[in-house]
Amino acid sequence: MFSTVIVLGIYYWSVFERFNAEIMNTDEQLQFWAKAILIAIPISIATKIVMMIIFAISNYIITREKMPDFEDERDKLIELKSTRNSYFFFGMGFVISLVVLAFGYPPKYMFIALILAGIGSEIFDNLSKLYYHRKGV
Amino acid sequence: MKKSNHSVTNNIRKLRFEHNEMTQQQLADTVKVTRQTIVAIEKEKYSPSLELAFKIAEVFKIPLEQVFTYKSKND
Fold first, then answer.
1. Are strands B68-72 and B6-10 parallel, antiparallel or unpaired?
2. Which residue, among B23, B34, B54, B56, would best test binding to A if mutated, counting the most A CBs under 10 Å from its CB?
3. Which whole-number Å values give the CA distances from B25 to A73, A89, A107, B37, B62, in the listed order?
4. Number of other CB atoms surrounding residue A113 within 10 Å
5. Where are the alpha helices (DSSP H) in A1-137?
6. Coil, helix or strand for A93?
């Protein structure tokens, strides 16, 4: 969770730096943000894969217990509930981004709301998983 | 979230010890779930599906109601 947030945080920081350095019309702005979000998707996936490999190796070294290579009914239920929570969070962010646009703010703020909703939903998803694993489901 | 008005208790831990001190991992492998799920069931943090409950009872070769007990909190 932290790794994804840190990597995406650094990436979007560089995106904002580039955005502020350039002067663009509305069409170019939309294209810029669309590209920025599309590039963020493989970055996020790659980060997750690398972190899962590192976690699996370090977990084996510390506990000498192999991570299960399948999902059972409880894992699926936790996954389902966490995904529901994260979709709800992202949905709220999407509505906020529309409200921002409806109130006449520039598209930049709509995309900022969408990006924050995306990162927030990722955090919410992981926190939900942690909660259901510890407190029960 | 609304709290459930019932709870399912179990005596899996006791039954494991009565069956040659079966480990949680052995039980998990037999019923094809992760050890964490067996831990959660024993701690009553997770109520298994009917299918999994039957599988666990089958491992101990006893009826389901001798493994799991349903208790309404109103009782």
1. antiparallel
2. B34
3. 16, 36, 54, 10, 20
4. 20
5. 2-21, 26-63, 73-102, 107-135
6. helix
Q: Minimal Cα–Cα distance from A127 to chain B, Å? A: 16
Give CA–CA dist B59/B41, Å, rounded: 15
Q: How far apart are the first and last CA of chain A?
A: 21
In terms of Cα–Cα distance, which of A82, A9, A71 is closest to A44? A9
| Chain A residues touching residue B43 (CB < 8 angstroms) | 136
The CA distance from B53 to A49, in Å, is: 34
Flag if B37 and A75 touch (Cβ within 8 Å). Answer: yes
pLDDT in tens, A91-107: 999 999 999 999 999 88
Intra-chain end-to-end CA distance of chain B, in Å: 22
Q: How far is B20 from chain A (nearest CA, A)?
A: 22
User: How far is C-alpha A44 from the chain's CA centre?
Assistant: 7
* B12 at interface of A, judged by CB pairs closer than 8 A: no
pTM of the model: 0.80
Tokens of B36: 């964490």
**pLDDT tens digits for range B21-63:** 999 999 999 999 999 999 999 999 999 999 999 999 999 999 9
* Widest Cα–Cα separation across chain A: 57
What span, in angstroms and rounded, lies between the C-alpha atoms of B3 and B23? Answer: 32
